[in-house]
Amino acid sequence: MVDEVVRIPDRDSRRQQLPEEVATYVREQIISGKVRPGDFLRLEPIAEAVGVSNTPVREGLLSLRSEGFVELVPRRGFVAAAFTEQDVRDLFWVQAQLASELAARAAKRITPEQLERLDAILAEHDRAEDVDDTDRMADLGHAFHREINLAADSRRLALLLAAAVKHLPNRFYASIEGHVEGARRDHPKIVEALHRRDVRKVRSLMSQHILAGADRLVDELTKRGVWADEETAS
């Protein structure tokens, strides 16, 4: 069953992830252009938006500082760091390299039960698209890739991919124009190649699928004027 694949953390475990919830929220604000480079990130408004206290907000911002999303100005606080088009493409490139290798390994090791779950996820994704359930589509997109990564049976590589993927807010990206169409077009092709255990085809399809996402996101952020100030300055 698809619902068994999409695992929702219980409340206690979620409470332990408060700094990451903050980091996810602020990443989305930065990547979407709602917060621009140089903008100060005040603790209180972020705490109110996420529904937490100031302590996990500070911890989340310190985490984002180590990722290069924010900077800490002495005696003034946190500010959003520059986020360029090349940063977007670099993030997707890393994700494509790791995801395509995991998919290739999955093609060799995937079980009939895992293939059945992927088929079920595809069917459920179609139903979610029919009713325009963006949140459900985001969950199912995550479940699709997670199932393939589990089938690869390469834990360390999957952890590295997870570290790269978290830089791109899942629900924000799922709302980008063309993302749903890309998933509906590419995911069945990937599953078909997995059924055939075609390692080279799976690797190529997964890489193309991920890299196409960079173009969609860059186009969307350009439309939003995220880099308008940079163009004016140059």
UniProtKB/TrEMBL annotation:
Keyword Transcription: yes
Keyword Transcription regulation: yes
Alphabetic keyword roster: DNA-binding, Transcription, Transcription regulation
UniProt xrefs under InterPro entries: GntR_C, TF_FadR/GntR_C, Tscrpt_reg_HTH_GntR, WH-like_DNA-bd_sf, WH_DNA-bd_sf
Domain HTH gntR-type: 16-83
Coiled coil feature spans: none
PANTHER family recorded: GLUCONATE OPERON TRANSCRIPTIONAL REPRESSOR (PTHR43537:SF24), TRANSCRIPTIONAL REGULATOR, GNTR FAMILY (PTHR43537)
Protein's name according to its UniProt entry: GntR family transcriptional regulator
Organism: Actinomycetospora aeridis
